[in-house]
Amino acid sequence: MNKTGKFRMLPALPLVAAALVLASRLYYRLARRLRRAGKRAEAEQRCGRSIIHNASDAIISTDEAQTILQASPSAAAMFGTTVQAMEGASLDQFIPREQRISAEQGAATYFGATGIHLSMKGRRAADYTVTGLKASGELFPLEGSISSQDEAGRQIYTVILRDVTERKQVQRQLEHSHTQLRELSAALQTIREEERTHIARELHDDLGQLLATLRVDLNLLQQQPPDSAGARKLQHSMDSLLVTAITSLRRIASNLRPRALDEGGLYFALQTLRQEFVDRHGIDCQLHADEQELTLDDAYSTAIFRIIQEALTNIARHAEARRVQLDLHRIDSSLLITIEDDGRGIAEGDMDKTTSFGLIGMRERVWAIHGDISIGSGGGRGTRITIRMPLPPQATPA
């Protein structure tokens, strides 16, 4: 204050101006930093949206309330809907809560009471098998993994999902195949024991009895005077017994291994099999094949013979057919086999029964030599079996 009693303000003005300038500079610097941070955040968000949009996997981003914030086009395609329809919707609409709770492999603990459980983060995705719901109402299996991050003070959860429908189908097919193989193995063991019992019985009851009778006749022959009527009668009886024994031995051996395969090859063996089938069952059977095309090695000849033998056995037992046609022809380096009958046909479910050991055995023989087999309708009534098997190089025509 001066002598007149007034305050003197002028010396303080420069200090105020300097403070204002400093504050202004600090404000603009802070504003620039905030703008830069905002741009970085926007860039990160755009980058995140770009990653989600271009990802090949199905990616869904949700908040803590399980509201979908972002969804990739792959996710929309997986659930049969659009990105616009998914964003803003509840996760329950696409992964129903009841499906999560009832799912296997701990999916309930994975999603937790609120749908997401972070303690499971980092474990294998295979641990999180759940069920998805498509827009069409179809349920399908999913596997997924989850991660979380903090954005602007709230938790954002990112779920990566994969449709494992094909994998589940393959697993079911493998399990079914393993079941069939176990059943077939058990059946083969039973059949093997039955065959051994049958052969032992035939050897004992047939050849055993014949040889015992021959021994008795031989003892009696030794007691008869030479060139007597009794001796000649015993010799004639022994000769008949020997012929019968030889016939029985050939029959038993033929049941174990068809003689026709060794004596005349596959074509002759199939002709013999066809004629025996006609004579035994009264069913007309035609064989269309070229003998030269069926000149194969022992492994292929035996496999083809057993396959056709099993097919004819099934026809005689189940088909109620009146006519059967067998076609065997070479096509390039493969052999095409067609077995067709006019019987009552075969149901689709019968082909996959674990007790259909005849069909299973045929398939196993075909697959063992890397062939393909299909069994279906013959066009009207009946059944048509088509087999294509690659031939070994030495068996293909030059």
| Outline | rod-shaped
Alpha-beta classification: alpha+beta
CATH topology of the largest domain: Heat Shock Protein 90
CATH structural class of the largest domain: Alpha Beta
Care to count the β-strands? 10
Radius of gyration: 42 Å
CATH superfamily of the largest domain: Histidine kinase-like ATPase, C-terminal domain
In terms of DSSP E residues, the strand content is 15-25%
Q: Which stretches are low in confidence, meaning pLDDT under 50 for 5 or more residues running? A: 101-127
Helix content: 40-55%
In short:
The protein is built from ten helices and ten strands. The protein has 398 residues and is an alpha+beta fold. The strands form two sheets. The protein has a five-stranded antiparallel beta sheet with strand order 2-1-5-4-3. The protein has a five-stranded mixed beta sheet with strand order 6-7-8-10-9, with helices on one face.
Describe, in plain words, how this protein is organized in 3D.
By secondary structure, the chain is of the alpha+beta class. It folds into four domains: 10-49; 55-163, PAS domain (Beta-Lactamase); 166-256; 259-398, Heat Shock Protein 90 (2-Layer Sandwich). It is 52% helix and 19% strand. It is built from ten helices and ten strands. A five-stranded antiparallel sheet has the order 2-1-5-4-3. Strands 6-7-8-10-9 form a five-stranded mixed sheet, covered by helices on one side. Helix 8 (259-281) packs parallel to helix 9 (298-319).
